[in-house]
Design goal:
Beta-lactamase Inhibitory Protein, Chain:B, domain 1, single chain, elongated, 4 strands, four-stranded antiparallel β-sheet, alpha+beta
Length: 120
């Protein structure tokens, strides 16, 4: 009888401990965690086909994570993991050919005059 009471008490303590962890997780404040390159549409509007990698780096900065195997593709990622609410994520992918910007894809709108080189 004594062993049964001890076992039931241990099981109850474990169940209460696990249940309280999920409740405490909601009560504990966690800081917002921004990671990556924060870009705005107004910055992306400055991009033009034919820009050099140095010109793009001047406008947007260099990507935080660079691909050691492919220098012709730059990926800008930004993720905000707020204390409350949904995770916010944006991505911009720039493709270069021979060091010149040829295309962009991702979560940003392509500028209306993207296909007009700076030289014209």
């Amino acid at each position: 009888m004594k062993d049964t009471v001890i076992k039931l008490s241990a099981v109850a303590a474990i169940v209460l401990g696990v249940a309280s962890c999920s409740t405490l997780n909601e009560m504990v404040y966690r800081i917002d965690l921004p990671q990556g390159n924060y870009l705005e549409q107004r910055d992306v509007e400055k991009l033009r086909v034919g820009m050099t990698q140095e010109q793009v780096a001047f406008v947007l900065g260099r990507p935080v994570a660079q691909n050691a195997f492919d220098n012709d593709r730059w990926v800008y990622l930004y993720e905000m993991n707020p204390n409350s609410g949904k995770v916010f994520r944006k991505e911009l992918i720039l493709d270069f050919n021979a060091g010149l910007l040829v295309d962009m894809t991702g979560d940003f709108e392509k500028p209306s005059d993207f296909d007009t080189p700076l030289d014209s």
